[in-house]
Design goal:
alpha/beta, six-stranded antiparallel beta sheet, 18 strands, about 35% helix, about 15% strand, elongated
């Protein structure tokens, strides 16, 4: 199943540096050496074993090496690189684009590709046939794009499997260069969509910056930070009141509740303060205005160096500190039962009960698939997970490589395609490969 209904991203999104890309600026130097040598041999009419080596045509296949599979990403950018920068410079020094002469097959971003650790049993995700010197220098940027996007998309998918399909907030913007945000946000989108397609779910996509959604139309979202609470002299409840009053209704009201390292106490203060305002407006028939003060969720984000005041110590840092299971259980019970301690009229009890028990818990801080899986296996009442740096990690859950490899597996001799590859590699097939006409890629 394709993720974007057979559509591919437009070339302009990638802002490719065509001139330097075609000159090999982004390529390992040995690929530039290859192109230079083959070009000179072509001019010399050099032959070896009766073959015009300078103009040799090859079939290259590109495949991933993450076991047992990866979620593909970077395919569309790879095709755009080929469309934009495949070619050569003529005697006048002008670039001649020869991409239309290439025969290309490719998968779609968002599909699965398998690798079982056997180089003879791989899923090629791109195949390129054509004169090698026209595209040899493009291998480095193509593999880099595939590796980066596929790694993050697969990491997102793995996190979602661990979370049993619960929403995952994409929080790694601060852990990478800002120019990578659009690519990374797109990779996140691929991972979420791949999970939804496979499991028949409708998990939402939540990003923290607008740039992360630039390639697929997403918009950044978020609520408050520790610095925002500090601006209100450390009063989280007051900071949330002003947030609710001034922010549009389509922004979820999520309170960050670990400023004082006392998540339960802070959450209860926020909950009561916001409910009082909510009920007051509801009673005066200001229903729309009351919605401004509907608390969507609370977010504990405790440091791994600190034990929250609500957590009884067990004497082990890994069990006591940070956002741990006992903290979440404490928080859920406190939220659910909070209304019981409020001075309420009988007719308001059900409203208060629903208000409290509707509040979600968004857990952030050091989450990875292993930690999320432990939480889910123990039925820790987290509603949404926020994950940051691990999603960019180069260490897969299985401890395998995340990279892609490009191999020449065939050469054209006297008009026939002949198997030829280094020992340990061979031509493979993949039914998901589709023929590509680069002229039709915008």
């Amino acid at each position: 199943m394709t993720i974007f209904n057979g559509k591919r991203l437009e070339t302009k999104l990638f802002q490719l540096d065509r001139e330097r890309m075609a000159e090999g600026w982004y390529s390992d130097v040995y690929f530039r050496n290859i192109a230079r040598i083959l070009t000179k041999l072509s001019k010399e009419d050099y032959e070896f074993k009766g073959q015009d080596i300078g103009n040799i045509e090859v079939e290259m296949q590109i495949f991933p090496r993450r076991q047992p599979f990866c979620i593909l990403g970077g395919i569309d950018e790879a095709l755009s690189i080929l469309k934009t920068a495949a070619g050569y410079k003529n005697e006048d020094g002008n670039f001649v684009n020869t991409s239309s002469k290439l025969e290309i097959e490719a998968c779609y971003d968002g599909e699965k590709a398998y690798y079982k650790g056997n180089p003879h049993n791989v899923d090629p995700v791109i195949k390129i046939r054509g004169r090698y010197r026209d595209f040899s220098i493009l291998e480095t940027p193509i593999l880099g794009s595939l590796t980066e996007v596929s790694r993050i998309a697969t990491n997102v998918y793995k996190v979602m499997v661990a979370a049993r399909g619960k929403d995952i907030l994409f929080f790694p913007a601060r852990f990478t260069h800002y120019k990578s945000q659009a690519m990374h946000g797109y990779a996140y989108s691929l991972g979420v969509n791949a999970y939804n397609n496979e499991y028949g779910t409708n998990t939402q996509r939540y990003i923290s910056t607008d740039e992360q959604g630039a390639w697929w139309g997403g918009k950044g979202g978020g609520t408050i930070s520790h610095s925002y609470v500090a601006s209100f002299l450390g009063d989280t409840a007051e900071s949330m009141l002003q947030f609710c009053r001034l922010m549009p209704l389509d922004v979820n009201r999520i309170a960050l509740v670990d400023f004082e390292n006392n998540c339960v106490s802070t959450s209860l203060k926020v909950l009561k303060t916001m409910f009082d305002k909510y009920l007051e407006l509801l009673k005066s028939d200001q229903v729309k205005e009351a919605k401004r003060y509907k608390l969507f969720g609370v977010r504990p984000d405790n440091s791994s160096d600190l034990r929250d005041k609500s957590v009884e110590p067990l004497g082990k840092k890994e069990l006591d500190n940070g956002v741990n299971a006992r903290l979440i259980f404490n928080l859920r019970k406190a939220l659910d039962d909070a209304y019981k301690d409020w001075d309420l009229r009988p007719e308001d009890l059900e409203i208060a009960k629903n208000y409290c028990q509707d509040v979600k818990i968004i857990a952030t801080g050091g989450f990875n698939p292993e930690k999320i899986d432990r939480f889910e296996s123990s039925q820790v009442p987290v509603d949404i997970y926020g994950v940051g740096s691990w999603l960019l990690s180069n260490c897969s859950c299985e401890g395998t490589k995340n990279d892609f490899t490009g191999d020449v597996v065939k050469v054209k001799i006297d008009g026939e395609w002949i198997d030829l590859s280094k020992v340990g590699r061979s031509a493979a097939d993949n039914p998901k490969l589709k023929k590509i006409d680069l002229k039709k890629i915008n």
